[in-house]
Amino acid sequence: MSILFYQKPDYRPKGDGPLNIQKCQKYVERAKGCKGQIPPDLSFERIISNKALPPCSLQDFIDYLAYVTNDAENLQFYLWLVDYHQRFRNAPPEETALSPRWDFDNPHPSPRDPGNFGYSAVPCSDKTLSLLGLSDYDAIEEEDISNASLIKDNRTSPYTATLGTLKFSEIPLDDAKPPDSTNSKYNAAQPFRAEINRIIAHYIASGSPRELNLSHKDRAAVLYVLRCTTHPSAFHPIQKVLDLTLRYQSYPNFIRWSICNGNKPWTMFLRTFAVFNIAIGFAIAILLTLSHAARWYRILAALEWWFGITNLIAAYQGLCVLLLRRHTREARPWEMDEQGRRYEQSDGEAGLRHSKIIYEETKSRWPVKMELFGPPNTWDHQTWMDRYSMKSIFKRTFEKEVPTQERGLHFMQNKIVRQAEAWALIITIPLTVFFTALPKGNLY
Asked: Residue 112: helix, strand or coil by DSSP?
């Protein structure tokens, strides 16, 4: 009976206003009633660790956040934070000693701002700490990071080498200036200080190109702490909010979206085709009932009914049975033109020239196509948008097919198709019995 009532992950809308712990806890509460909807092969850790296959890979997750929900900065910052934890962990002890851990429960006093931000540090889940490669902020262990980590222990790994080879001007943005206090030289000597200034300028400061949707309280607290230390614990409020948002809101929506193997024009065509098959089934049953033919011929209508209802139910879930059997899906609009993935200067970048940042040198060698630093995540000037808008409805409906490789996704899709077939059978049997039991019309 479970197959009849199987549901794909529920859609979880974004809340209004900036993100905070209270709002993110609502995502967690909604997730409690949805256990078992996503198989372990498609867990959040596997996707973030780039272990899932297309169309559920880390690159697909970034594309979904970039082109569909328009909040790719959350994952971009999160991936950087995972990498930063690992690099800080592997930094020489004499360097990390200059950036002590920050305790949000007992913040360090400051002549400029002696007040407490009122934070109560929320402990991270074991899975989150596993991703970050830490067991606790208090002690950075020397043992190997867990299997779920993105980063290798080597400080010159392909992931961490990217940030080390970037060339930026020494002129920081206004929002990223180190504190003009007696400790400014001390702060400048802290490890990764220049990189932290760039992160502030791109993700945390108000009006930054990829400004995270943080509450005023979180933003002010993190900006204050980063003036004192570059320890990863300084990002704790942001890390907690982003982890809950990505894990319990963006990730389930991404899996739900990935289940659909056809675009909207194809899905509408499939629904129309399914309704047409159901109508043909009724036409066959009615015509045979009114004729001299034996009533058993009316069973032929059941084939059309079952086929049409199966495809109609599956299409309302965004699935095409034919594409599923072929282990393919229709290509996304941004996948049709590889040039659309290339870096192009936009108005947003032109407005950032005062920062003296050489954006062409920020092209990453991460395991995904992601630019850590750059202009806002807007895609209005990418070539694929113009090409897609000029396509006819026929070409949009019959797009190019690309293979799907993730077995966990196939498992979910097959359950939906079996559910559609089961409900189609339940509906078809009474219809067939009803028309078969009717007497002959003998009209022709």
From this structure: coil
Closest CA to 59 of 50, 71, 72, 70: 50
Euclidean distance between CA atoms 229 and 404, whole angstroms = 45
Cis peptide before 92 (omega within 30 of 0): no
**pTM reported for the whole predicted model:** 0.76
CB 222 within 8 A of CB 230: no
Q: How far is CA 4 from CA 258, 415, 422, in A?
A: 21, 9, 7
- In sequence order, what are the residues at sequence separation of 6 or more whose Cβ sits closer than 8 angstroms to the Cβ of residue 39? 408, 411, 412
Residues in the chain: 444
Q: Are strands 328-330 and 401-403 parallel, antiparallel or unpaired?
A: antiparallel
Strands (E), 262-302: none
131: amino acid identity, one letter: L
The 8-class DSSP code of residue 352 comes to T
Structure tokens, 124: 């991270």
Which of 165, 170, 225 has its CA nearest to residue 200? 225
CA distance 428 to 420: 12
Question: What is the Cα–Cα distance from 381 to 347, expressed in whole angstroms?
Answer: 9
pLDDT tens, position by position, 64-89: 999 999 999 999 999 999 989 989 99
Q: Is the separation of the CB atoms in 281 and 435 below 8 Å?
A: no
